[in-house]
Amino acid sequence: MTRALAGPYATLLLAGLGAEVIKVEDPRGGDLARENSPYVGRDGVTVERAHADDVSISHLSRARGKQGVSLNLKAPGAQQLFQDLCRNADIVVENFTAGTADRLGVGYAAAREANPAIVYCSLSGFGADAPEGGKAMDVIIQALSGAMYTSGDPDAPPVRMGIPIADMLAPVFAVIGILAALEQRHRTGQGQHIDVSMLGALTSFVAIENWAALAAAGMPARTGLTVQRLSPFGVFECADGYVALVAVHEKLARGLFQAMGAPEMSDDPRFASRDARVANAVALEAKIAAWSRTLPTAEAVRLLEAQGVPAAPVRHPEEALTDPRVMARVETMAIAHPRYPHQADLRTSGIPIRFSEARTGFDETLPIAIGEHNRQIYGDLLGYDAARLEQLAKQGVI
Amino acid sequence: MTRALAGPYATLLLAGLGAEVIKVEDPRGGDLARENSPYVGRDGVTVERAHADDVSISHLSRARGKQGVSLNLKAPGAQQLFQDLCRNADIVVENFTAGTADRLGVGYAAAREANPAIVYCSLSGFGADAPEGGKAMDVIIQALSGAMYTSGDPDAPPVRMGIPIADMLAPVFAVIGILAALEQRHRTGQGQHIDVSMLGALTSFVAIENWAALAAAGMPARTGLTVQRLSPFGVFECADGYVALVAVHEKLARGLFQAMGAPEMSDDPRFASRDARVANAVALEAKIAAWSRTLPTAEAVRLLEAQGVPAAPVRHPEEALTDPRVMARVETMAIAHPRYPHQADLRTSGIPIRFSEARTGFDETLPIAIGEHNRQIYGDLLGYDAARLEQLAKQGVI
């Protein structure tokens, strides 16, 4: 029972690990991600939906490998269907606003009543115990988490991260919680409620750096493209892009000076030791930038790597997603509209885990329409007969 | 067998979920994170280490709840100790450069020989199958993943994320892989090798956005503090800081105009519909900024929330880490030097998952010195007698 990104990404990860996932959607509209432009379908990628079976690329990416049923949770009798689903399930995931699932009669209490072994995971902005408040969008959580003031120059505005990190981090922790609860269930036979907050997940990541201690020690925390207390460390401009390099230790610094064609810098008292390099970081960074700005990025990387200095080009997402290493490991993967597979060349997230004795991946299944798999799930799995399905549809329950 | 951040964060999460974690360190130096300034000890927080039992705050944060043994993997006989540890363990985690663990005789093959049920997880920059290359630092992986070109303004330099996201994301997926392998082990009785790449984990996050499709549809991907295709959406300057707000839908946009004291904007043809607001995003954002810049952030948030518009102040990390909601849920938590608990007020990451039938958290244990718990682990757990321990120490094995 998930919508948007946080919840669907949690169940996507579970699907990729081998779970059979059933996506439950309101027959009156379904997951709002279905309305995210751009779409893909018989005409390829389009900004607007032109045909009934065009699907949002967001939906295609997030719902792949899942079966889909329709269920209007506000309709009389919906709770019965929900509990029947729970009796045939191991895990429930929902990301309604805190309190909503309980109010609709599909909270943990209802699930447990149907199946005491159920593992029930709630994903919300501020936690299941938060007083009901506004919706928790990614940008709101990024703002509250402190993350926006960890990037960028010390005096610059905050930085909104272009990856929806708050939406994606909470579900990763949700999956950890779910798998940990399954492990506990092997010992107790009982399920439990897992409660993950977007704000908590992202703040816990921010908290791994010792912000207060850095401040207490007089060390700047927010340092932009380079980190002067580790100088030379960071990102430098090239003729056609940017290069990232790390030369914190003595041997690497000497390698950098060699790569720069300036081995004599090793004897310059300003740069001859780690402490000196940190103390003269501004002058050192200026020298590096004056060198790197004259070179294509690939040439700078080549020269640095030849000296054993860790270095990399700063790549754009399109290039990163098609890195041969990443494609070979299925950390990114092709997706296609099941009916028009050759109409577009699309690539999305894979499961970034390799198992020696198992494979990750997704079935070809996709709920193109809401309730696409009602017959398979309500009919074949729950055993509802055709007459009952017809009546439920007529009553607007499914 | 983990060092720096990626590996230790994986085992920290496992410790927080209840695992008994044994940190294996080289007696000749140990985890380099022990050398990260600042330190904490009898004199409080200091930039330099003054006393033998001062500990790096990085080490304090990452090694809490773990026992520590010393083991020189290059010493003759070390493999015997490693295999004895494996016979008493469920999980091994290592983050050496790819290929190193095998070369040292402590790779998956050696672990499985000792214990076929062992789940063995390798964390590396580019995957266990990568040809041996340079070290994979966080900034190098950020550069390669495309993440640096997702934040910031369209024509601005790339943005280095201040959170070590590459170092932290791979271990979260490692824990998912480990727990999934434990689930599989309940069915097969066998362990397996888990292989997680820093580049793959971060690239898979970047890949959730449909970069190629956005480009194909002519939509800008990198949009800085606001997203004009969702206008009004993003971060706006206030008199004393910044506010994040989301007013994509009709009702929210009207609420925003009310909050701005300009309800007539709802009738302005430039702003009267969602399509119009997107088409006139530049003018709309200028009007919002002209309003927000006159107000303290708290006042802007108050006015927006009163109209039901999702809004939040952009907070600094220190403020975010002490959010009462986050502290109450132990998503951040206090840490202290075990011997000098009152000398500093430090706060770090908790486990951002709440269980109804279990608690997360950390024992008071900390390997202050390398090999702190040799007697408990090699003696009590493995049953080595005092004479043997003495000899191993004398030979430099432990």
TrEMBL record, chains A, B:
<protein>
    <recommendedName>
        <fullName>Carnitine dehydratase</fullName>
    </recommendedName>
</protein>
<dbReference type="Pfam" id="PF02515">
    <property type="entry name" value="CoA_transf_3"/>
</dbReference>
<keyword id="KW-0808">Transferase</keyword>
<dbReference type="InterPro" id="IPR003673">
    <property type="entry name" value="CoA-Trfase_fam_III"/>
</dbReference>
<dbReference type="InterPro" id="IPR023606">
    <property type="entry name" value="CoA-Trfase_III_dom_1_sf"/>
</dbReference>
<dbReference type="InterPro" id="IPR050483">
    <property type="entry name" value="CoA-transferase_III_domain"/>
</dbReference>
<dbReference type="GO" id="GO:0008410">
    <property type="term" value="F:CoA-transferase activity"/>
</dbReference>
<dbReference type="InterPro" id="IPR044855">
    <property type="entry name" value="CoA-Trfase_III_dom3_sf"/>
</dbReference>
